[in-house]
Automatic annotation (TrEMBL):
InterPro entries: NAD(P)-bd_dom_sf. It is a peripheral membrane protein. One of its GO terms (biological process) is import into nucleus. One of its GO terms (cellular component) is mitochondrial outer membrane. It is found in: Mitochondrion outer membrane. Residues 168-193 have a biased composition (Low complexity). PANTHER family: OXIDOREDUCTASE HTATIP2. Residues 168-195 are annotated as: Disordered. Coiled coil: none annotated. Gene3D superfamilies: NAD(P)-binding Rossmann-like Domain. This is Oxidoreductase htatip2. Belongs to the FMP52 family.
C-alpha cells in the first residue's frame, strides 16, 4: 500500500507497464508524445521531470523555467531546456498584473523571449509552478500561482491547437473530493489531443476569502474553461519532502503530518513529492489520448487520498 510519506517501488512497476501501453497507443496513431513542464526546479516538479524522462514514454521533455535545472537521471538526452521570461509570456497572452499594467522591460540577461516555437509539438503539459505569500508578497504570489500558470497553459494550448477555441462549455466537477471523470464534446477544439496536468491544492475554492485556496480555485476554474482534451487537477495536502529552501512553518507542519500519518495511518494530510510525481505521470500514461477524441473535454480532480490510491490500482487490461 502507498503510504503518504514514501516513494513506491510498486508504483514504479505500474508506471513501467502503463508506459508501454501508452507508447503503443501513440505509435498506432502516428503521434509522437512530447511533454512540456514548468516548475521542474521545484520539489514536485523535479519528481515529475524524473518520472517523465525515466518512463521513456516521451520522445522529448521540455522544461520551461526562469532557470535551467540539473538532471542526472535516465534519458537525459531527451531533456530540452528553455529559459524564458514569464513577464514576457504574460504580455504575449494578454495577462495583466492585477492593478498595474504589464512590465515592458526587456527580458533579463540570459533569458529568451518566450517563443511559440518553444511550446509547439507537445502533447502533454505539466504545471508545478508556485511560490508563497511569505516569499513573494500577496501580488507576487498571485502573479506566479495564477498569472504565470495561465500564461503557460495558454502558450501550450495556442501553440498546439490549430483551431482557435470558441465558447467551450466546461464540464463542472470542481467540488469532487475523489476521482471524478467526465467528458463532453465541445464545439471547437484541438485536432491533436492535448493533456494538461496541474498541481493545485486541497481546499481550492475560488469563492474562499483566503488568498491561497481562492487563487488555486480560480486557476482551476479558468483551466476548466479551456478546451484541453483532458485536464487533470491534483489537489495534494501538505507536501512531504526534505525541502532545500528553509520554510519554518512548513517544516513544523511536515513533522506533524509525518507523526500523525504514522500513528493513525491517515491519507488526507500529506503526500511525499516523490509519490505525487509518480501519480501525476501515471495519470497521463494511463490515459493515452485518441485523435478521434481530441474534441472531448475530460476533466478529473484528484484529492490527496485519491492521488495516493491511484498508485495502488493496476492499469486496466
Ligand atoms: N507546500 C505544500 O505543502 C503544498 C501543498 C499543496 C499544494 N502545493 C502546491 O504545489 C505546487 C508545487 O509546490 P512545490 O512546493 O513543489 O513548489 P516549489 O518547490 O516551491 O517550486 C516552485 C517552482 O515554481 C518556480 N517559480 C517560483 N516563483 C517563480 C517565478 N517568480 N518565476 C518563475 N518561476 C517561479 C520555481 O522556480 P525556481 O526554482 O527558479 O524558484 C520552482 O520551479 C505549488 O503550486 C504549491 O502551491 C503546495
Amino acid at each position: 500500500m502507498s503510504t503518504p510519506d514514501a516513494s513506491s517501488d510498486g508504483a514504479a512497476a505500474i508506471i513501467a507497464a502503463a508506459a508501454n501501453k501508452f507508447k503503443e497507443a501513440y505509435s498506432a496513431q502516428s503521434i509522437t508524445p512530447r511533454a512540456l513542464i514548468v516548475g521542474a526546479s521545484g520539489e514536485t516538479g523535479q519528481q515529475v521531470l524524473r518520472e517523465l524522462l525515466s518512463s521513456g514514454a516521451f520522445a522529448q521533455v521540455t522544461s520551461v523555467g526562469r532557470r535551467e535545472v540539473t538532471y542526472g537521471g535516465p534519458n537525459g538526452d531527451r531533456l530540452v531546456q528553455k529559459v524564458v521570461d514569464f513577464e514576457q509570456l504574460c504580455n504575449e497572452h494578454g495577462i495583466e498584473r492585477k492593478g498595474a499594467p504589464n512590465a515592458t522591460a526587456a527580458p533579463a540577461t540570459g533569458t529568451t523571449t518566450a517563443s511559440k516555437v518553444d511550446f509547439q509539438g507537445h502533447t502533454h503539459a505539466y504545471c508545478c509552478l508556485g511560490t508563497t505569500r511569505a516569499k513573494s508578497g500577496v501580488d507576487g504570489f498571485y502573479r506566479v500561482d495564477h498569472d504565470y500558470t495561465m500564461a503557460f497553459a495558454k502558450a501550450f494550448y495556442e501553440a498546439n491547437a490549430p483551431t482557435a477555441p470558441t465558447a467551450a462549455t466546461a464540464s463542472n466537477n470542481a467540488e469532487a473530493n475523489d476521482v471524478a471523470d467526465s467528458s463532453s464534446p465541445t464545439g471547437d477544439s484541438p485536432t491533436t489531443p492535448l493533456q494538461f496536468s496541474v498541481v493545485s491544492s486541497t481546499g481550492a475554492n475560488a469563492r474562499s476569502p483566503l488568498l491561497y485556496v481562492q487563487t488555486k480555485g480560480q486557476v482551476e476554474e479558468e483551466l476548466k474553461a479551456m478546451p484541453f482534451t483532458r485536464l487533470t487537477i491534483f489537489r495534494p495536502a501538505g507536501l512531504l519532502c526534505d525541502r532545500k529552501e528553509s520554510r519554518f512553518m512548513e517544516t513544523v507542519m511536515v513533522k506533524a503530518i509525518r507523526s500523525i500519518d504514522r500513528i493513525f495511518g491517515t491519507k488526507s494530510l500529506g503526500i511525499s513529492t516523490a509519490l505525487l510525481g509518480q501519480a501525476i505521470v501515471l495519470d497521463s500514461l494511463r490515459h493515452p489520448l485518441a485523435k478521434a477524441n481530441a474534441a472531448q473535454k475530460q476533466q478529473t480532480t484528484l484529492s490527496n487520498a485519491a492521488i495516493l490510491d491511484s498508485l495502488k490500482t493496476p492499469p486496466a487490461v
